[in-house]
Amino acid sequence: MDTHEHIVRSYEEELSALNNKIAKMGGLAEQVLGQSIDALEGRDPDLAAATIQQDEAIDELEKEIEEQAIVMIARRQPLAYDLRQIMAALRISTDLERIGDLGKNIAKRALAVVGEQQPKQLMLGLKHMGELALGQLKEVLDAYIERDADRALKVWYRDEDIDAMYNSLFRELLTYMMEDPRNIGLCTHLLFGAKNIERIGDHATNIAETVYFLVHGNTITDQRPKSDTTSSTPVPLRSAG
Q1: Residue 81 sits in which domain range?
Q2: How many domains does the chain have?
Q3: Residue 241 domain-assigned?
Q4: Does a structural domain hold residue 91?
Q5: CATH number of the domain to which 135 belongs
Q6: Does some domain include residue 127?
Q7: Given this model, what pLDDT does residue 114 score?
Q8: For residue 194, how many other CB atoms are within 10 A of its CB?
Q9: Cβ(144)–Cβ(88) below 8 Å
Q10: Is the pLDDT of residue 83 over 80?
Q11: N or C: less crowded end of the chain, CB within 10 Å?
Q12: Model-level pTM greater than 0.90?
């Protein structure tokens, strides 16, 4: 093997190691999200605590990916597609780290509502929203591994579905709080949990944009789908009489 072949093979091995770390990090992020939803639905403090601990492994992988990427850029001085591969890994690791944090926050909500009686309908809505976000995350990570821009684009467009579910759940939770002030504590925790899931959907959309850029070398030109209307939702006031 000549020197050039050795350099090429060594570089390919480094890229492969980077991809494997992203895949591992993505698998952990999926696990944290899935477990946090299960912990919240089942009011399971042990599962919630274990899920919170798992986030540390995601943080550690992000540091490893960042360090490896910096070394590869300095040593290899990659251009064009090769550079995009390294930058994509960096961007995606940042989004996965945030997804891990958001999943951990959902698990913390599960700890906070352990003793509460949860309205079944609300939990069904939250669980459905979580499953949708988890499906989006799995799909976009597969798109990254396969370098499939069309698959990533489908995830990008489906972010509106998560937003629509969040809007509906937001209004339902407000109604519960207004009907009975004793529901305010529980519903507030569920509201924050739902917002965390909505943000996870946004990060999955970020990853979809990165995959598209990785494959094509340009950004998605369509307007980003966004349908979270909760910031402008009016809150009905009870009459003084």
Answers
A1: 3-232
A2: 1
A3: no
A4: yes
A5: 1.20.58.220
A6: yes
A7: 81
A8: 27
A9: yes
A10: yes
A11: C
A12: no
Q: How far apart are CA 83 and CA 203, in angstroms?
A: 22
Distances (CA, A) of 147 to 19, 27, 39, 54, 140: 11, 17, 33, 28, 10
**127 burial class (0-12, 13-18, 19+ CB within 10 angstroms)?**
middle
User: Tokens in use for 140?
Assistant: 């976009």
pLDDT in tens, 122-145: 888 899 999 999 999 999 999 999
Which residue type does 232 have? S
Please spell the DSSP secondary structure of 3-22, one letter per residue: HHHHHHHHHHHHHHHHHHHH
Residue 237 lies in a domain: no
Tokens of 208: 């979809």
Please enumerate in sequence order all residues whose Cβ is within 8 A of that of 105, keeping only pairs 6 or more positions apart, or say none: 192, 193, 196
pLDDT band, residue 4 (cuts 50/70/90): low
pLDDT at 241: 39
Report the pLDDT averaged over residues 194-222: 94
29, 137 Cβ separation under 8 angstroms: yes
Query: How many other C-beta atoms can be found within 10 angstroms of the C-beta atom of residue 24?
Result: 16
Task: Take residue 238 and report the two structure tokens written for it.
Answer: 């009870």
Decide if 193 contacts 126 (C-beta within 8 A).
yes
